[in-house]
Recover the amino acids of this structure.
């Protein structure tokens, strides 16, 4: 790629040479990213009638510049164009031009680095590359909320900052999250906790919308949130930043500080993040859940305060044929849950929740996620060997006020549930480039152990082993036409540990005898599964237009709770029953993408059609167990169709308008809920975003004003026990700018944002608190500052 | 020329998009059943006092748009004031105390097939030896589709 650019610049230089043979000079210089100081290969440098492109080292030579006062315009995709005035009267060297990332050229998700953009265009699946610039411009309380601006990406939230990914209406274990090459293993299956990733550790994200099991294994049915390791720092560099955050709605204060340094071959990175949130506010004084009424104190959603403390460190080595980086990271959080009802269980308490909005009383959960990951890449001749090793320890405890339930007497402590999940993973792959074929083969191994504790039983302890082997070929038929075909085989075994109630239950036999028994809730069983998955796709690049077509089969191994739960989930007021006869869930999906990109106009449409043979669905039955409704895991055929549309245009240089929409339709085609949709189906929604880049003034550089108008239609497609959700409209405003009081000092970035400007009371259909009629957060003003260290 | 082709393709795809989105779930049951004691003979009403050893007829009315399936009655103590009812009036609760032999009742019943409404009558005797104090009486109903409704009533067991 870079050599092509070198050649291009050479051609450019050569072509201008004869035209300006007299009274002209050469200007040599360097183009760098203002923050990272990474050379911007491919940046364009234009003067009066002359033009060149920076080479792989960011260096350029502009020849034939006419004597006198000259203005150079330096531009690069994803960066703000910089204009430099020069007095040209001799050959000049060593001009350094720094460009600041900006999103004025293209809005939001369309801001990619060039080579990544090209690669994404050549890969047949529906892929969105998310840049750091997008992350910074759209940062919300959690990583997934930040990413939910992308059409087709939603979240399932509990409270204002814990969220898990939903891609085109599917979430939980049907979306894989991968960080530094290793699948993130937390509590994906549960609906009352978030992702457990520090979003400040995330530099860029690749979102795969569509079936991706061929590459990512089990669970990548709806898509993947792939968080690659950040770019390697430049040699002999030292840089860092401090992020300061403040919010009004939840009185949040946060700080995140990161540093990275590199000598010649060794490099280091470190970061810590600390956030403290008070209870968040909703635009209502009262919550009406069924016939219950909860009065709120000063509109505070009581006991929703949180604390979060994260740290990460990595050490890397890079040489010509080998690179290796080892990451240590730890995410800790303590999150309070709404005190009046958790799940569907209405609670009253003697705890004085309203004495402080910052303390965390019962119910709450506390979690810690430790990760140790090594990524190593070795190049030998035409082969590149990638090895990723990972260890994760995910610990979570859920505490609530002990109360007797059914036959269970009042427990003597508050520890309702505890999960200790350890995951060991090994991924190895070899990439071999053979002419126009890029052949990749690899294996994935994962061993997982889950231990449980506490007086509430929901998911059994288990040990799970999975192994997968895959191979694919990316074939460049010609530079415009790419074909990708791959196949994968997986084997998995789940060993479930038996579980008995810690309290006796009175049983009345048919003969009228009563006896007391410690009921068994999970049986000692070992189940094994295997599956063949694969995908085939084609991409065609015609000028600025990309066409893609991809067909894939993906799968998911059933979870231990789907296989073996047999107990009461009091939060949801139901009895959940698993089934050991469940098959791996398999899904077939056809994806299409047409996108067109010009300087002032872009357009993309990405529809999909999806068929599940055996979607695992927790079906609410018409039966009771001890006065609680029995929910059973069943497998049904499901048809889904939907997609995203995105169109944007630039007007009058400074204004950019972007419009996007997303829609998913899902229908169960068999089973007891035939004709019904799937739970948590996101409604039809549209987003209009208007960006205006104003002139620099005072010491504000590249100020951008953004207004976002979101329209969400009502969701009347529901399935028991859901309720329809009314449509709503939201307005968010933000203003971001760089502040540069001193010319040689890197700019401080500032962002002011007002969310839910009109303090609208609305319900999010995919929010966990929607079930108990809790509206979303009210108006919020947030201020974030990013101060560079160099 | 090229852009025209693109646009045509886009419209075709939009057509596919919309064409598939019509609702084929006509006749889906999206209504919850209802359960209530808020009628003349309904029992218990909010703050009702029940004497130990006495027999009462618990009455509730069930309704559904399609078909009723099952109902349940759950009585458990509320000595720790862990919850409250959903009736309009709020009752004076006794002092918080530990349970020694609380009354526990958990019964499920099915409704005969094809019914969209019925009035249930359950003869229930308060055991002689249970703790007196605040109790919680919870009725629940499920319809044939799997929709559930609940209602909870604060009651007191007295001497």
């Amino acid at each position: 790629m870079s050599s092509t650019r070198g050649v291009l610049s050479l051609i450019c230089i050569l072509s201008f040479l004869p035209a300006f043979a007299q009274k002209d000079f050469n200007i040599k210089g360097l183009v760098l990213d203002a923050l990272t100081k990474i050379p911007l290969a491919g940046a364009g440098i234009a003067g009066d009638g002359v033009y060149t492109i920076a080479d792989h080292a960011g260096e350029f030579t502009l020849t034939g510049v006419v004597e006198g006062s000259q203005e150079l315009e330096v531009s690069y995709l994803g960066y703000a164009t910089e204009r430099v005035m020069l007095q040209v009267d001799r050959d000049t060297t060593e001009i350094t031009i720094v460009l600041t990332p900006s999103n004025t050229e293209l809005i939001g998700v369309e801001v990619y680095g060039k080579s990544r953009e090209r690669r994404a265009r050549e890969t047949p699946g529906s892929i969105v590359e998310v840049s750091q610039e997008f992350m910074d411009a759209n940062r919300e309380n959690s990583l997934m909320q930040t990413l939910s601006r992308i059409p087709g990406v939603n979240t399932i939230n509990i409270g204002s900052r814990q969220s898990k990914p939903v891609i085109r209406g599917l979430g939980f274990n049907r979306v894989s999250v991968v960080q530094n090459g290793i699948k993130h293993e937390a509590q994906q299956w549960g609906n009352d906790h978030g992702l457990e990733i520090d979003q400040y550790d995330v530099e860029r994200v690749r979102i795969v919308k569509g079936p991706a099991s061929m590459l990512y294994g089990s669970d990548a049915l709806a898509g993947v949130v792939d968080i690659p390791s950040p770019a390697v720092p430049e040699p002999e560099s030292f840089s860092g930043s401090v992020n300061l955050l403040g919010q009004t709605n939840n009185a949040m204060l946060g700080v995140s500080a990161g540093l990275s340094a590199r000598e010649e071959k060794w490099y280091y990175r470190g970061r810590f993040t600390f956030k403290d949130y008070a209870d968040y506010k909703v635009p209502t004084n009262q919550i009406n859940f069924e016939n219950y009424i909860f009065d709120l104190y000063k509109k505070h959603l009581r006991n929703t305060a949180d604390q979060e403390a994260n740290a990460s460190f990595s050490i890397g080595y890079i040489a010509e044929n080998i690179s290796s980086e080892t990451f240590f990271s730890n995410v800790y959080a303590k999150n309070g849950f709404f005190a009046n009802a958790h799940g569907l269980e209405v609670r009253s308490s003697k705890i004085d929740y309203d004495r402080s909005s910052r303390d965390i009383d019962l119910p709450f959960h506390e979690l810690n996620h430790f990760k140790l990951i090594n990524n190593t890449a070795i190049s030998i001749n035409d082969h590149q060997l990638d090895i990723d090793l990972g260890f994760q320890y995910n610990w979570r405890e859920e505490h609530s006020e002990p109360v007797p339930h059914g036959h269970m007497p009042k427990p003597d402590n508050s520890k309702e549930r505890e999960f200790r999940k350890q995951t060991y993973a090994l991924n190895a792959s070899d990439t071999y480039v053979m002419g126009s074929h890029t052949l990749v083969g690899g294996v994935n191994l994962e061993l997982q152990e889950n231990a449980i504790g506490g007086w509430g039983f929901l998911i059994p302890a288990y040990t799970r082993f999975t192994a997968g082997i895959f191979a694919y070929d990316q074939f460049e038929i010609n530079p415009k036409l790419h074909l990708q075909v791959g196949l994968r085989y997986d084997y998995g075994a789940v060993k479930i540990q038996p579980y008995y109630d810690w309290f006796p239950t009175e049983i009345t036999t048919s003969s009228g005898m009563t006896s007391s028994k410690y009921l068994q809730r999970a049986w000692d069983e070992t189940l094994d599964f295997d599956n063949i998955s694969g995908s085939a796709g084609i991409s065609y690049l015609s000028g600025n237009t990309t066409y893609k077509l991809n067909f894939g089969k993906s799968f998911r191994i059933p979870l231990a709770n789907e296989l073996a739960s047999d107990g009461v989930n009091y939060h949801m007021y139901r009895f959940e029953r698993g089934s050991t006869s469940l098959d791996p869930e398999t899904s077939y999906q056809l994806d299409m993408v047409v996108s067109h990109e010009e300087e002032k106009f872009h357009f993309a449409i990405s529809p999909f059609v999806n068929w599940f043979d055996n979607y695992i669905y927790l079906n609410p039955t018409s039966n009771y167990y001890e006065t609680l409704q029995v929910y059973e895991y069943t497998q049904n055929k499901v048809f889904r169709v939907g997609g995203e549309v995105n169109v944007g245009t630039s007007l009058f240089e400074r204004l950019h308008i972007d419009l996007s929409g997303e829609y998913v339709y899902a229908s169960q085609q068999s089973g007891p809920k035939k004709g019904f949709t799937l739970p948590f189906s996101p409604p039809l929604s549209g987003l209009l975003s208007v960006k205006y880049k104003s002139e620099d003034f005072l010491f504000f550089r590249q100020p951008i004003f953004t207004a976002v108008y979101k329209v969400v239609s009502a969701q009347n497609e529901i399935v028991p026990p859901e309720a329809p959700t009314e449509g709503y409209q939201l307005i968010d405003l933000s203003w971001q700018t760089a502040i540069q009081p001193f010319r040689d000092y890197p700019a401080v970035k500032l962002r002011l944002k007002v969310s839910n400007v009109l303090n609208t009371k609305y319900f999010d259909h995919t929010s966990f608190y929607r079930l108990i009629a809790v509206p979303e957060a009210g108006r919020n003003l947030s201020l974030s500052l990013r101060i560079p260290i160099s | 020329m090229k852009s025209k082709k693109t646009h045509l393709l886009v419209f075709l795809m939009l057509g596919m998009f919309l064409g598939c989105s019509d609702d084929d779930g006509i006749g889906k049951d999206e209504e919850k059943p209802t359960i209530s004691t808020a009628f003349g003979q309904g029992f218990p009403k909010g703050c009702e006092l029940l004497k130990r050893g006495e027999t009462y007829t618990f009455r509730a009315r069930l309704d559904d748009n399609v078909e009723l399936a099952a109902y349940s009655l759950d009585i458990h103590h509320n000595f720790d004031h862990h919850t409250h009812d959903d009736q309009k009036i709020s009752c004076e609760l006794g002092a918080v105390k530990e349970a020694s032999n609380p009354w526990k009742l958990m019964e499920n019943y099915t409704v005969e097939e094809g019914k969209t409404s019925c009035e249930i009558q359950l003869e229930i005797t308060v055991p002689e030896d249970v703790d007196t104090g605040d109790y919680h009486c919870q009725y629940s109903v499920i319809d044939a589709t799997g929709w559930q409704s609940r209602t909870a009533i604060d009651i007191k067991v007295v001497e």
Chain A touches chain B through 56 residues (CB under 8 Å).
